[in-house]
Amino acid sequence: MKKRLSLFILILLMVVATACSSGDKNASGSSDDQGDSGEWKPEKPIEIVAPSGAGGGWDTTARMTAKIFNEAGIIDQDIGVVNKEGGGGAVGWAYTAGKDGSPYNLFVSSPPILLVPLNGQSEYGHEDFTPLANVIADYAAFAVAADAKWDNLNELFDDMKKDPSSITVVGASSPGSMDHIQFIKIAKAAGVDITKIKYVSDQDGGALTALLNGSVDVYSTGVAETVEQVKAGKIKVLGVTSEERLEGDVLSDFPTAKEQGIDATFVNWRGFFGPPNMDQAAVKYYEEKFKELSDSDEFSEVREKYGWDEMYMDSEEYKTFLDEQKEDIKGLLDELGLAK
């Protein structure tokens, strides 16, 4: 009788201990999606934020990434892309910052996540999020009207050296953000006094129109934004900021700044982040999936279509790269008096 009672008590204690262990695991916030091996996989839809309106580089990158993830069977869960426009990206970053620890909320970003906080327009910077992976490199293009007197960057910069403020440069980003800084970096390397360059911002989609009607002289933009207008004979590209000439129809005709003797480049890297405090198991999952995406034939075709280069970095590489880029950019903003 005593043996049976002892056995009953032992079984009862084991059941209680198992229940408590399970309860403790759930109470600690461990993900139900994490198996016994410690690996994580999504079990509900994933949201990718494009911190901009439709049609721009962030939006296109997010939508193409979601499309290939699903169509190539890299990620089985549904992936939705939502636009959170405003503040040069700051609205989208604030939204994601509010998703602390969530493995289901990602966003795409690029140099503005360094530039915008540095010039005091966002309280959030790259350090406030979880870098997952970089996937592509895009580049800047400097365009003028088809009938402009300049046929290359050296001719443009020679005139700017004489009187920088006589030439107006337009971009879609605010002063101190990407379209401005990409032009500043190349102009500085060419010997132009960058503190006297006249840059105007048109964030309402009118930059190209201003170039075509003669209101401004130079359009600082992304390579992909110039192709159709070059094909139509309305503009010409004086130079791009890649290390070597790009491949593809029309793109291969664009000379680099470096081949024109200007020793500078500007990379519009583009990658993905998660909210603060994302679990390391989820980070590992996304690193592997973004690498699979980057290596896929389907995404290779996307890169070729938009003139993007492959530029994969895992989470640790990406973080180191971002820290280094921030220091470089801060130096330019300090010289312009725009760093806060």
Describe the oligomeric state of these chains in a short phrase.
Answer: single chain
Sequence stretches where pLDDT stays below 50 over 5 or more residues: 1-32
Q: How are helices and strands ordered from N to C?
A: HEHEHEHEHEHEHEHEEHHEH
Radius of gyration from CA coordinates: 25 Å
Query: How would you sum up the major sheet?
Result: 10 strands, mixed
Give the CATH architecture of the largest domain.
3-Layer(aba) Sandwich
CATH top-level class of the largest domain:
Alpha Beta
Number of distinct beta strands: 10
Shape: globular
Mean pLDDT score = 90
Q: Give the helix/strand class.
A: alpha/beta
Summarize the structure.
The protein is built from eleven helices and ten strands. With 340 residues, it is of the alpha/beta class.
Structure characteristics:
D-Maltodextrin-Binding Protein, domain 2; 340 residues; ten-stranded mixed beta sheet; 10 strands; Bug_dom1; BUG; single chain; alpha/beta; Tricarboxylic transport TctC; signal
